[in-house]
Amino acid sequence: MAASSLLIWVVIPKGFHPAWLLWIEIHKWSGFAFIVGAFLHVVLHFRWIVRMTVRLFRRRGA
Fold first, then answer.
1. Concatenated DSSP letters of the chain
2. Is the predicted pLDDT of residue 61 greater than 70, yes or no?
3. pTM of this prediction exceeds 0.90
């Protein structure tokens, strides 16, 4: 996503340009894939997140 942002912002001129439109689509879909991946990562590791949170608060309360 960072590479596509840099290309869109700095390298490719703005306006109606086929390469610019392609990189806009690449940027949009890679952002969507990143959000889905982050969500799945949290779902798959939710039990670990809960255990570590409980463990952290137990230590502070003791």
1. -HHHHHIIIIISPSSS-HHHHHHHHHHHHHHHHHHHHHHHHHHHTHHHHHHHHHHHHHHHH-
2. no
3. no
